[in-house]
Specification:
The protein has 227 residues and is α+β, with helices and mostly antiparallel strands. Helices cover 20% and strands 41% of the residues. The longest helix has 23 residues.
Length: 227
Amino acid sequence: MRKNLFLLVTLFACLALASLDALAAPGVGKVVIVKGSAMREAADGTRVALERGDRLFERDLVTTAADSMVLLRFDDDTRFNLGPRAEFRVDQVRDDDEGVFSAEVIRGAFRFITGLIAKKRSGAMRVRTGVVATIGIRGTTVGGEVVGESATIVLLESEEPGTPSAIEVGNDFGSVIIDQPGYGTQVPDAHSPPSPPQRMTLRAIDNLVRNINNIQRNAAPRPMIHR
């Protein structure tokens, strides 16, 4: 009897500790803007509609519906804008001496501005674009779009003029470094290297930039009208 009671007490104690751990699990960011509708799928498969102010956690999958967008701000001040029909996963965010920011844009148009983690240590932040390539960041502003197994990635003007910025886009077949705003690369599939850096002038790139501009415009706060 005593043995069974001891086992029950131990079991309840373990369950209580697990619950406390779950409750104490720190978030890594929050939702700043939701236009339209977006969902968050947690690591355990739980799906909830995203609302402004919701916390984000590692291994969360964020998806946006058609004609929708979200602005996510992480605790190190990294910011991600996601356009319509986008999928984005938070892998790991750790802001310490060995800081790491790892995420993946699975599909859709995106724009991100790096925060403290990328500025503290070169190579600390990496963003995968589906199965196509990985972006290594050196403190900057980046836009792009992932469509199927292809991706377009462009270095945008930094919000901090005079700050060195560059990205390295690579996969198993090669890599390129882009250090001039307005230049980018295209990766046609997961089995091809990124194209050499090129100015964004092609029609396909113009469409990408238009999508990025739409995200920026929708995410910008509207000025107050005084009557």
